Amino acid sequence: MSDNEDRWCIVRIPGARYKILSQILEQEFETRKREKKADQLGYIFVKHNPDTLQDALKPFDGAFPLWDCANNKRPATLTESEVILFTRLIEDTELNLIMLDHNLDYYAEGHTPVVCIDEPLVGKTGYIVRRKSNRNFVFSVGNAVTISATNAHKMRFLTVEEYEKAQKNGLL
């Protein structure tokens, strides 16, 4: 994919402006919405060239690109399949997902890598991390976006080694 192609970029709209700005952005760009929960920032996926996204958002005061956690000089982008996965996770589950500002490696220190064995995150590798005194499953979608599932206490996990043994033995 060349650098001048449109990609799915993540735009965050904090606060009460989400409802109005997301409707305006839907008229101006090809978008997919992530419904805002009362306690979270609102996000919308905008199909645009990541190199020109920040300039394109200037007329929309309050809309900001989410920066790529691996390369903070570029907006985070997702592939079509990653956007479908992420929106499915939001719409079809009770998971409370929050996008984080750091890459997955940032959360690795002092934590053992685990694999989720429950739907809808079955097979996702990440870390169990305490954030704000809650047990979170931190994983990445693509290499650009790190996500925290804040209700990880409801899911089951195996270490990577246990998961590989269970797969090898036909238990998963």
Kindly report the spatial arrangement of strands forming the biggest sheet. Answer: 6-10-9-8-7-11
At the first level of CATH, the class of the largest domain is Alpha Beta
How far apart the termini lie comes to 35 Å
Which range best describes the helical content: under 10%, 10-25%, 25-40%, 40-55%, 55-70% or over 70%?
Answer: 10-25%
Q: What average pLDDT do the residues reach?
A: 84
Q: Strand content of the residues, in percent?
A: 25-35%
Report the major sheet.
Answer: 6 strands, antiparallel
Provide a count of the helices: 4
Rg from alpha-carbon coordinates: 17 Å
Looking at this structure, what is the CATH superfamily of the largest domain? NusG, N-terminal domain
Sheet/helix structural class: alpha+beta
Quaternary structure state of the chains depicted: single chain
Spatial shape: elongated
Q: The CATH topology of the largest domain, please?
A: Alpha-Beta Plaits
pLDDT < 50 runs, ≥5 residues: none
Protein architecture, described:
The chain has helices at 18-28, 53-57, 80-92, 160-168, and strands at residues 7-13, 30-34, 42-48, 64-65, 77-78, 97-100, 113-116, 125-131, 134-141, 145-149, 157-159. It has two domains: 7-84, 2-Layer Sandwich (Alpha-Beta Plaits); 93-168, no CATH class. The chain is built from four helices and eleven strands; from the N terminus they run βαββαββαββββββα. By secondary structure, the chain is an alpha+beta fold. The chain has a six-stranded antiparallel β-sheet. Strands 1, 2, 3, 4 and 5 form a five-stranded antiparallel β-sheet that branches.
